[in-house]
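Supplementary Note 3. Input sequence used for the single-chain structure prediction.
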Amino acid sequence: MTFMDGVWRFHLRVLAVQPRRCRIARLKLEHPAGARDWPRPNLHIVADGQWHTYAIHGNHDLRPMQPGRLWMSFDCPSGTEITWGAGELLRSTMPSAARALWVDGKAIDPYTPLSWPTNQE
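The predicted structure, written as discrete structure tokens, is reproduced below.
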């Protein structure tokens, strides 16, 4: 990958009978750029049955070096319902915005709006 500071973004709905026992989703990438032991790539999820958007770094053990799979495993009790909305790997545009300001004298807007529907059913 030719950019710095990747960010994974996921849109999920998790409904657990015992929400306090369903707070962690573990992530693993098939072909990571690098590995480190700490901190582990975990998403801290909310199991209230509502749609939530989560973000986590896309570097080191979550930075893909080539096409492959991303695994997400949920540490939740039996009977938990998980609905996948979307997932994407984004690149930070802050370095590009800073370069544009320095080289061209005008900044670009580094923010991209959330492109997912906010009320999925």
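DSSP finds one helix and six strands in the chain. Residues 94-104 form the longest helix (11 residues).
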